[in-house]
Design brief:
Oligomer: single chain
Order of helices and strands: EEEEHHEHHEHEHEHEHEEEHHHEEHEEH
Number of strands: 16
Number of domains: 3
Radius of gyration: 23 Å
Strand content: 15-25%
Distance between the termini: 57 Å
CATH superfamily of the largest domain: Type I PLP-dependent aspartate aminotransferase-like (Major domain)
């Protein structure tokens, strides 16, 4: 018999044979059929099996018995759970994608780097493109951290920060935010001191996720004086500011991460970018995979930046709808919406759990975000939709 053993040092060793290996169960010694001529021994980290694979909300609806949605109406759902832009991209995007004749060739990134640099008022040497901002988060950890060095996170925070730290086996120092979602500045400074130089990268989000509040520039400036890199994720900055771009020329340890997913309506094409000192940008360019951003994303982004008037008008429509929705939510007795500068609104619930409300809404074909994190069990996050979508949401909320 062949055995898969949960090793005490945190790995699973598997003998790889000429035939297929049956599935195994971690944490126990599992007998498995042996195949002839075992040739290779591989080691799999148990840490990776503690990570829950990401599943989009419609996938959860298909596979979870606790949801009351029938599969054939998933495409008709009102999706207010993923902070997507309900107004979509510029009309020029579809036209540019249809007319582009270079899909058979690997893309040239220079035109988009130059266009992003003009949009952000930096030099092209300060721009690095990524396959979504997620890839840039991963690359920043690879660039800034040695194996025994790690990151400071301020939960609640975007889950990908912790995800990539765990995948890279980096230590994480958590400094929870206050009840009002403000940063614990003394706590962050203490974490830097007590890490003995091992905390090398701090991730912040402004406007924050899931709360939508902006971190003041003076707060970021104070953190930039610490002996570590500070990455400010500005995925939602087009919906409310100010951002920290004015600090980039002053502090070489500042990295700004942005995306085309939210304001530009290009979530499905996966395009983000980092703004940082030229020396750091050069480092990221050295370690990113060749052709990491596909040609369609480049074409769509260029078309977007050539039609800023239309896209920014959509952003203004969404912001106006956010303010209208915020006021309407505040009128519901058991809801307490938190003022937001993003394209979503976090709501504190009175006498109900987030999961309870999210499941009730899903039963009516409306998706919002609930949380498994204990401190957020009494919240839901609602992405701002089109006016008719928001009206449908409000009608159901009043009935709950």
């Amino acid at each position: 018999m062949l055995y898969v053993v949960h090793k005490p040092f945190g790995a699973v060793q598997v003998a790889l044979c000429d035939g297929l290996i049956q599935g195994f169960q971690l944490g126990v010694v599992t007998p498995m059929p042996i195949f002839h001529h075992c040739t290779v021994e591989i080691t799999v980290s148990v840490i990776l099996y503690s990570i829950i694979p990401f599943a989009a909300m419609p996938d959860k609806l298909y596979h979870s018995s606790s949801w009351l949605i029938r599969p054939h109406i998933v495409e008709q759902l009102i999706r207010l759970d993923a902070n997507e832009n309900p107004f979509g991209p510029s009309p020029r995007v579809a036209q540019a994608l249809a007319e582009f004749a270079g899909y058979h060739l690997y893309p040239d990134y220079r035109p988009l780097r130059e266009a992003v640099a003009r949009y952000a008022s930096v030099s092209p040497q300060q721009v690095v493109l990524g396959n979504g901002s997620d890839e840039l988060i991963d690359l920043l950890m690879r660039l800034c951290l040695e194996p025994d060095q790690g990151v400071i996170l301020c939960p609640p925070a975007f889950s990908m920060y912790r995800f990539f730290a765990d995948v890279g086996r980096h230590p994480v120092w958590e400094v929870p935010r206050g009840d009002d979602f403000s940063l614990d500045m003394p706590g962050i400074e203490a974490a830097v001191r007590e890490s003995d130089g091992r905390a090398r990268l701090l991730f912040l989000t402004s406007p924050g996720n899931p709360d939508g509040q902006v971190i003041p520039q003076d707060t970021v400036r104070r953190l930039l004086r610490l002996p570590l890199m500070v990455a400010v994720d500005e995925a939602y900055i087009e919906f409310g500011g100010p951002g920290v771009l004015p600090l980039l020329a002053e502090y070489e340890n500042l990295i700004i991460i942005r995306t085309f997913s939210k304001w530009a309506g290009l979530a499905g094409l996966r395009l983000g970018y980092a703004l940082l000192a030229p020396e750091l940008a050069d480092g990221l360019e050295r370690i990113r995979a060749p052709y990491n951003v596909n040609a369609a994303a480049l074409v769509a982004a260029l078309a977007t930046l050539e039609d800023l008037e239309t896209v920014q008008a959509n952003v203004a429509r969404l912001v106006a709808e956010r303010e209208r929705l915020q006021a309407a939510l505040a009128a519901i007795p058991w809801l307490e919406p938190i003022p937001s500068q993003a394209n979503f609104i976090l709501c504190r619930l009175r006498g109900r759990s987030g999961q309870e409300v999210a499941e009730a809404l899903a039963g009516q074909g409306i998706l919002v975000r609930s949380f498994s994190e204990p401190r957020l069990e009494g919240y839901i996050r609602i992405s701002v939709g089109r006016p008719k979508q928001n009206e449908a949401l409000l009608r159901v909320l009043w009935e709950l």
